[in-house]
TrEMBL record:
Catalytic class of the enzyme: hydrolase
GO molecular function: 7S RNA binding; GTP binding; GTPase activity
Function of the molecule: Involved in targeting and insertion of nascent membrane proteins into the cytoplasmic membrane. Binds to the hydrophobic signal sequence of the ribosome-nascent chain (RNC) as it emerges from the ribosomes. The SRP-RNC complex is then targeted to the cytoplasmic membrane where it interacts with the SRP receptor FtsY.
Domain notes: Composed of three domains: the N-terminal N domain, which is responsible for interactions with the ribosome, the central G domain, which binds GTP, and the C-terminal M domain, which binds the RNA and the signal sequence of the RNC.
UniProt keyword annotation of Phosphoprotein present: no
Principal location: cytoplasm
Native source species: Korarchaeum cryptofilum (strain OPF8)
Protein name per UniProt: Signal recognition particle 54 kDa protein
PROSITE patterns from the UniProt entry: SRP54 (PS00300)
Family designation: Belongs to the GTP-binding SRP family. SRP54 subfamily.
Length: 432
C-alpha cells in the first residue's frame, strides 16, 4: 500500500498546474492503491469521492497551492479513518485494572496476552496473567514460556472459566497488582454465537475488553471486529501477524471502520513483537514520510490563522476566536507578529498573559459552553463560579480573563472601524 500511495503523492507534488484532470488522476491512483491493499471497496469510493470534491471546491490558504491542498486532504481523510493520536489505554493508578482478551481461535490471543503483559510490566508496575482457556489447558505453559519467570500466571484445574477468573482476580487484587490480563478460550470461526465471552464479561465486569484480529485476513477484519463489538463492549483492538503482511493496510482500515480503536499491532511471535499503533505515523509512512505530515499541519495552521485574521479584520471576535488567538500566540511567539497581519491593527493590542497563564486560560475557555463562547455577554454571576470550578481556577481568574478579552475585543472593533474609515477617506482622496 505504502509505495503506490507514495507514488501518487510524489506524482501530484511534481505537477505545476492542478486542474480537474490532475485531481482525477490523483484520485484514481489513490483508489487503485487502496483497493490493491484490500481496503473495503465502499470505503475506498467514499474516501475518493470526498477527496475529489474537496480538492476542487476548497481553496488553499495564502501561501499554499492547490497541489498542497490535495495532499493535505488525502492525509486528512486517512487520519479521519484511523484517528490521529494513539488511542489511550484506560487505567487507574489506585486499583487492579482488569483486561479481558477476546478473539477467535488462532487469532493470537494467548501470544498477545503475554506480549501485552510484558509491555505493561515494563511501564506500569505489577502485571499478572490469568489463564482461563479451559479448552486448551496447555496455554498456561504457552504463556509462561513467553513471559518468563517475572510475570506470574494464575490458573487452576476447573471446567468453569468464570471461576478461574474470579479466583485469579481476587489473588492479584490481594497482592495489589496494577494490571491483570485474562486469556480466554476463543470461539471457532464457524461458531456464530459469542455467548461465552458475553457471559464472562457480565460475570467479571473487566475494565477493558481487547479484541485480537488476525491481520492476514484482509478486509474480512471488518465483519469480524463488528461481530465482536456488537456482543461485548470492545474497548480496543490488537491486529496481529502484521509482520511481513503486504496487505496490512486493509486489515487496519477495516478495523478502524468498525469503530474500535487499534491499540497495538503484533509483528512477530516473540514477546516483544508488539508495537503501539500510532495512526499518524502509520499514515505518514503510507504517504511517504514526515514531510507530508508537516505540510498538512502547516496548511491546517494557515487555515485557522487566515480565518481568525478575516474575522478580526471585520471586527468580529468572540471567545472562540480569543482561544484560537491565545493558542496561536503560544506558537507564534510575540503577539505583535500576529497582529501586524490584521489590517489596521499592527501591534497595538497588548495582552498581559504569560505562558503558564495561557494554558489556564485555554482551560477556562474550554469549560464554557459553546453558547457562552459565542455570546460572552451571557457569562455573569453563577456562570462565572461554574466555569471556575470546571477549570479548577478561582472566579477572580475567570474575571481577569474576561476583562482581557473585552479589552482586546473593543480594540479590535475600534481598529477595524478605524481602518474602514481610513479606507473610505482614502477613496475620497483624503489622508493616506
Ligand atoms: P489464540 O488461539 O488466539 O490464543 O492464538 P495464539 O496466541 O495461540 O496464536 C496462534 C498462532 O499465531 C501461534 O503460532 C502464534 O505464534 C502466532 N502468532 C500470534 N501473533 C503473531 C504475530 O504477531 N506474528 C506472527 N508471525 N505470528 C503470530
Ligand atoms: Mg489461546
Amino acid at each position: 500500500l505504502g509505495s503506490s500511495l507514495r507514488n501518487a503523492v510524489s506524482k501530484i507534488m511534481g505537477k505545476s498546474v492542478i486542474d480537474e484532470a490532475a485531481v482525477n488522476e490523483f484520485v484514481r491512483e489513490v483508489q487503485r492503491s487502496l483497493i490493491e491493499a484490500d481496503v473495503d471497496v465502499k470505503l475506498v469510493l467514499e474516501i475518493s469521492r470526498r477527496i475529489k470534491e474537496r480538492a476542487l471546491k476548497e481553496s488553499p490558504p495564502p501561501g499554499f497551492s492547490r497541489r498542497d491542498l490535495a495532499v493535505k486532504i488525502l492525509y486528512e481523510e486517512l487520519t479521519n479513518l484511523l484517528g490521529r493520536k494513539p488511542a489511550e489505554i484506560p487505567m487507574e493508578s489506585k486499583k487492579t485494572n482488569v483486561i479481558m482478551m477476546v478473539g477467535i481461535e488462532g487469532s493470537g490471543k494467548t501470544t498477545t496476552v503475554a506480549k501485552l503483559a510484558f509491555w505493561l510490566s515494563k511501564r506500569f508496575g505489577k502485571v499478572g496473567i490469568i489463564s482461563a482457556d479451559v479448552m486448551r489447558p496447555a496455554s498456561k505453559l504457552q504463556i509462561e514460556q513467553l513471559v518468563g519467570p517475572d510475570i506470574p500466571v494464575f490458573s487452576k484445574e476447573s471446567k468453569d472459566p468464570v471461576e478461574i477468573m474470579r479466583e485469579g482476580i481476587e489473588f492479584f487484587k490481594r497482592e495489589r497488582y496494577n494490571f491483570v490480563i485474562i486469556d480466554t478460550a476463543g470461539r471457532h470461526k464457524d461458531e456464530s454465537s459469542l455467548m461465552s465471552e458475553l457471559d464472562a464479561y457480565r460475570e467479571i465486569g473487566p475494565d477493558l475488553v481487547i479484541l485480537t484480529i488476525d491481520g492476514t485476513i484482509g478486509q474480512a477484519a471488518y465483519a469480524q471486529a463488528r461481530a465482536f463489538a456488537e456482543k461485548v463492549p470492545v474497548g480496543g483492538v490488537i491486529v496481529t501477524k502484521l509482520d511481513g503482511a503486504a496487505k496490512g493496510g486493509g486489515a487496519l482500515s477495516a478495523v478502524a471502520a468498525s469503530g474500535a480503536p487499534i491499540l497495538f499491532i503484533g509483528t512477530g511471535e516473540r514477546v516483544d513483537d508488539l508495537e503501539r499503533f500510532d495512526p499518524e505515523r502509520f499514515v505518514s509512512r503510507l504517504l511517504g514520510g514526515g514531510d507530508i505530515i508537516e505540510l498538512a499541519m502547516r496548511i491546517e495552521e494557515a487555515f485557522k490563522e487566515s480565518r481568525l485574521m478575516e474575522r478580526m479584520s471585520k471586527g468580529k471576535f468572540d471567545l472562540e476566536d480569543f482561544r484560537e488567538y491565545i493558542q496561536q500566540l503560544g506558537k507564534a511567539g510575540p503577539m505583535e507578529k500576529l497582529l501586524e497581519m490584521v489590517p489596521g491593527i499592527g501591534g497595538r493590542v497588548q495582552l498581559d498573559v504569560n505562558s503558564g497563564e495561557m494554558d489556564r486560560w485555554i482551560a477556562i475557555i474550554n469549560s464554557m459552553t459553546p453558547e457562552e463562547r459565542r455570546d460572552p455577554s451571557l457569562i455573569r454571576g453563577s456562570r462565572i463560579e461554574r466555569i471556575a470550578r470546571g477549570s479548577g481556577v478561582t472566579a477572580k481568574e475567570v474575571r481577569k480573563l474576561l476583562k482581557s478579552y473585552h479589552q482586546a475585543k473593543k480594540l479590535i472593533e475600534s481598529m477595524s472601524s478605524e481602518s474602514k474609515a481610513r479606507r473610505l477617506f482614502r477613496r475620497m482622496g483624503i489622508g493616506g
